[in-house]
Fold each of these.
Amino acid sequence: MADLPGRQGRVTESLLRDAAYELGLVPEQPAEEWTGVVIDITDAHGERLHREWSHEEIAAASDRARAQADAPVVITYDEPPRTDRSPHETGE
């Protein structure tokens, strides 16, 4: 995004109030088998974000997220033992 003098890039009440919104109705159940999702956003400065994901990409990402959420948390401690401690500190 280009830097504009006096612009901080923050979302303000006036920005939201004065913005133009386009809305659409999305049915709860798709009319047909869906094959993907498209996100296409253009900001007020004309900068565009366009990204497409296939049904297979979304399913694979969902499976990875579920597997990570269900995986056990493994905590490892790899610090080597200190050799400069006295026998009193180590309990020996």
Amino acid sequence: MEDHNNETAPAFAGALPPKVTGIGGIFFVSDNPQATREWYANHLGLETNDWGASFTSRSADNPDEVTSLQWSPFPKGSDYFAPSAKEFMINYRVQNIEGLVSQLAASGVTILDSITSYDYGKFVHILDADGNKLELWEPA
């Protein structure tokens, strides 16, 4: 196991340290995503839409900050999880996505795509040590 202490971490002048700050989403394969969303709505009270359900909360360290977690079933056969063979993907909420991707690439982590920006944030996909596809999201 490698020792990753703060003394060897590069400085990011004026920027937040690149790191995960929470879970941004849980995505999984379903034989019938519509029926799955309906089941969760009817039996567990989730307020669902075509993308799943969103859970909002406040940050314990910064109560003015509202965060969210997206829960989404994907259709069986979706290539969204590729190249991972797993039927799930976790989205991690991050800060300083550019700095984090730079650190990960320097450490030899597989970066699957370029950082993509949308109105609701920036995204990039990586593989963990077990070959699981992970989504990194920096909210806008």
Amino acid sequence: MTTAIGRGRWIAWTGWAATRAGRSGWRGWRRGRPFAAGLLLGLGGLELICVSWAGLGFLRFTGTAGAASWALGALFVVAGVTIWHNPALRYFSGVLAAVMSLVSLVAANLGGLLLGFLLTAVGSALALAWVPQVRSEHAEMAARR
């Protein structure tokens, strides 16, 4: 069964072509930087903040540990965003996040009950291990065809 609207017109009418272009742009941006490292650092920082903010009901995190959780959590989020927007600073941010994750074990209630510590430690390791892909001339010529 055919419709009056051709396939090309249907794709343009629904906006599906724009979605495809957006997805390929997103994919290229994500692959060009240590995306998972920044995501894990941000999630770990947010976890530290949320644990100190909400508490567990019977356990309130106030005082020095609460302040350290907020400060370290904010620094982890900043490190994650820095890794996303400037991949050249991945070594600096990765080492800083690794040291801060160890500090969070002592200063911020076992690093947000160990979950924040694990997220930030893995995120900093991924940031340090990420290497940008260098495309060879042969691969570029094959991509053009």
